[in-house]
């Protein structure tokens, strides 16, 4: 009775996962086109936030630059990893629900076979195998999407770290130059 009550919810969720897998493939294709035309959106947003952080740094009460840059990097990386975790969730959930979608109709099929209802048994078996294929397909598709996204994110994270290091070195160079100029002015007055 419990497995029969899970029959429709499991099939509905497997169907939603299949739709999500197709949606994820579309988003991957869209992101690929965007990356070819304008580069990574993640890096562009980081660059804007980096400029804001550097502007805040010039205020007297600002936190140390290295702390601000590290927080900014971690925040951007965390946002992207959350999106990747959603895809990873489907990688594991799809096959598990596909298996449930197989076993539940097989139980119904065996009950139909015991009653001699061959057409009902055949219908349940078709549903069972369709659920298996759909669940495994969702897992495979989202796994491939996750692989591509992980490669892109590694490259994005490296570019963001590089930009942060460059920005920090420029700020420190400007501060060192200001200190040197103040030192020369002081030595000239003595």
Automatic annotation (TrEMBL):
Keywords: Cell membrane, Membrane, Protein transport, Transmembrane, Transmembrane helix, Transport. Residues 65-146 form the MotA/TolQ/ExbB proton channel domain. The chain crosses the membrane at residues 6-26, 89-114, 126-148. Pfam families: MotA_ExbB (PF01618). It is found in: Cell membrane; Membrane. It comes from the Bacteria. The keyword Protein transport applies. It is a multi-pass membrane protein. InterPro entries: ExbB/TolQ_transport, MotA_ExbB_proton_chnl. Belongs to the exbB/tolQ family. PANTHER family: PROTEIN TOLQ, TOL-PAL SYSTEM PROTEIN TOLQ. This is MotA/TolQ/ExbB proton channel family protein. It comes from Methylomonas fluvii. The lineage of its organism: Bacteria, Pseudomonadati, Pseudomonadota, Gammaproteobacteria, Methylococcales.
